[in-house]
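Quick entry between incubations.
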Amino acid sequence: MLKYGLLLFTVLSMASCAHVKEYQKSRINDSEMSLSSRHVEKNELNAESYREGSSGANGGKTGGGCGCN
Amino acid sequence: MKKLSLSVIGMYLVMAHAFSQTNTTDSTGYKPKKLKLDEINLVTSYYDQTADKSAVMGGRTDYKGNADVTDFANGIDVTFIGWDKKQRKNTLSVGLGIDYHTAASQAYVDSNGTSRNNGTRIYPTLNWSRENDKKGTSFGFGTYYSAENNYYYSLGLNAYVSKKNKNNGEFSLKVVSFFDQIKMIYPTEFIPVTKETPVDSALQLHYITTASGRSELVNSSGQTVGKSKGPVVPSKPRNTLTATLSFSQVLSQRMQGSVELDMVYQNGYLGLPFHRVFYNTGKDTIENLPSQRFKLPIGFRLNYFLGDNIIIRSYYRFYADSWGLMSNTFNLEVPVKITPFFSISPFYRFYMQTAARYFAPYAVHTEEEQYFTSNYALAAFNSNLFGAGLRLAPPRGIFTNSLRILELRYSHYTQTTDLNANIISLNLTFK
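Done. Structure below.
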């Protein structure tokens, strides 16, 4: 799975097909199209990282703090 | 820590002063702008969990293994933005979070279930960044501090750089480190008595000094009858270093995606001193885990604007670590725009993980094993999360001109370990 992930990463890194002009970005710039988690998700992501064995690669925490309850 | 807190406040004041430059005009008519309040974000959440098999009681399924939790979390982030003489955008963010929780399992740090079962956590943050739109570059750094009552503190530092290319792509590198200290709060049965001082021979009350440095007033049968005086509990370090590589790309007028790879290295005390493990002989001990862990999560996002009103937000993550735990996460969210300024977003998340090689349930570990835990966060399980969010962002504000965005989100979470939780969150953005 990791191999496929790294392959996709490389392909995306080399992508040069996207010639989208600034004036064509009305949909891309829509706030719902953001490539990050929402402010309102912050505590939900924290809870998931405390209750599950894995974390990271989602904009949430990768360490620090207890979460021991 | 007081010194560190003062340093953080000092850094804030120095930065606030440094960017409070006076306005000057260049030949193009451009005027730099002082750092000015841009946005205030308030996030509040209530989390309610029912579960058993608590790590404090070594995964027991009876009433002593109760792992019910409530958590009331509140955070505020204040962002200031300014432009300097070279037309670079400077952003300063100051944040403060305060959580209050209750945890049934915490009561059983004392084997009689009489320990305090609630606590607070305070976590301030400070971040600064500079963005050069002409060059497509940005960089920044920040700091984070978290204190949990009598248990833990954590100090975080981060720095990042990013560069946009001409083809609507952006590459960034971020480094984050956390330096934690874990207070060694042991279950009561593992605190050996090192000294006894009689204080009342008639009542047979006496002080004991524990191995953790606490002084407790106990009666003739060894039960604690008085509060400890001036606990001096030793601590152990835990360090986390994360390097994050990410790349995002606009793929068409309607689609964009990103890849994020974290490389996480942890060392130090990676268990918790009040997590019990019960051997198959019935005897109990404290969880013991290796002092190093390497984690490798990689996440992919792909967002697509379908038609005029529907957006598809998808996310997948693969995770593997040096403790033998692997997981897959799939997330799909479909915001539907009812109007240009109001959307409803149903979402679903599926998660599956394998167990860490050191995990075994209650009373399964043998005394011959070197590393052992019965913390169900490291067990094999699947989880499902679903719910919906509302987003309201009218251009003239909500009720008042300053409240620009209101987001409300509810989610229900279930694990195959019998853990169930509900979380409701509200985000208000003021401009």
